[in-house]
Amino acid sequence: MSLQHSSEDKIEVIRTQPDQSLGCSIIDEQGREVPITEGMIQNACRELEKRLVKPAEQK
Prior knowledge:
- 22% of the residues lie in helices and 10% in strands.
- The chain contains 1 helix and 2 strands.
- Strand 1 (25-27) and strand 2 (33-35) form a beta hairpin.
- The longest helix has 13 residues, at 38-50.
- The chain is flat.
- The two termini are 20 Å apart.
């Protein structure tokens, strides 16, 4: 089983409430606690996928 998945792989996530808290936060520049949202994680994953470098094929 591969640890890497195609960016086309989709896993359905069902939340009971939109913008449901994920139970974690970050601290912003002003020292305020900011809850981490599903949208923040999705955006970060999209940015990482844009920067993904595929390994060279091995012969």
